[in-house]
Amino acid sequence: MKRHAMLLALAAALAGCGGPEEVPTTTTGGPATAVDDATAGTITGAVRFTGTPPAMAALPLASVSGCGDQYTGPVSAGDALVHDGLVENAFVYVKDGLGAVSFPVPAEPVVIDQRGCLYHPHVVGVLTHQLVKFLNSDALLHNVHGKPANSSGWNFGMGVKGSERTVRIAKPEVMVSTRCDVHPWMQAYVGVLDHPYFQVTGADGRFALAHVPPGSYVVGVWHERFGAQEAKVTLPPHGSADVTLTYTAAP
Ligand SMILES: [Cu+2]
Q1: Parallel, antiparallel, or unpaired: how do β-strands 41-50 and 215-223 relate?
Q2: 34, 87, 170, 202: which sits with the fewest CB atoms below 10 Å from its CB?
Q3: What is the pTM of this model?
Q4: CB-based neighbours (< 5 A) of ligand 1, an ion
Q5: What are phi and psi of 7, to 5 degrees?
Q6: What is d(CA 101, CA 240) in angstroms, rounded to the nearest whole number?
Q7: pLDDT tens column, 124-181
Q8: What is the spatial distance between Cα 219 and Cα 232, in angstroms, rounded to a whole number?
Q9: What angle do CA 130, 134, 137 make, to 5 degrees?
Q10: Could you give the CA distance from residue 89 to residue 15 in angstroms, rounded to a whole number?
Q11: How far is the CA of 89 from the centre of ligand 1 (A)?
Q12: Are 153 and 130 in contact (CB under 8 A)?
């Protein structure tokens, strides 16, 4: 082995044992997929709920010292938010049809704040290898415990107000749950994808996935109480397509 090759091998071995963490610059580690501005389009739509939405529990926050005083009234679990038939906090994403793609990993972290003994946001999407930053805005101990099925998990305590810890999730997964072992109602959901075509619905239940290459896709939606649905959509070149995903109340 030539000397420079030996040095490279040594450097690689060192990096593999306690050296600086090597983070891929793209979601799969492969070259970034080029999306043609001239032909890309937008998939828009809404997530609907037909029938009477299920009831939401009240959370036992009033009795928690350091959290209860942040609220003036009862706090809903917020896990079945439906407004005039439109679903909030649904995770909508391109589930199939993109083929093998890879996208630059955003430099900015996705922030999940622990505030008032709840996670804000409650449902969020990230790209593979993107930083997920947990903040603790409460002056008490939270334990952050994430259990991905496809990637390494995490489990650490955060006892200091203003502290932060970051994790990265290596493989796509809808959905990764992360929860607090101290306060069992504290749960956040992180949708992890190797492409940026996802969105969490707001109170209007709508979504818009922009800069999507033309093609035929399966659009999926995930909701913590209502489950998963999907719909097919064809996006013409430089066009738009609208799709409605509908949940129906249990009989
Ligand atoms: Cu907690």
Answers
A1: unpaired
A2: 34
A3: 0.91
A4: 142, 180, 182-183, 186
A5: -65, -40
A6: 21
A7: 999 999 999 999 999 999 999 999 999 999 999 999 999 999 999 999 999 999 999 9
A8: 6
A9: 150
A10: 40
A11: 21
A12: no
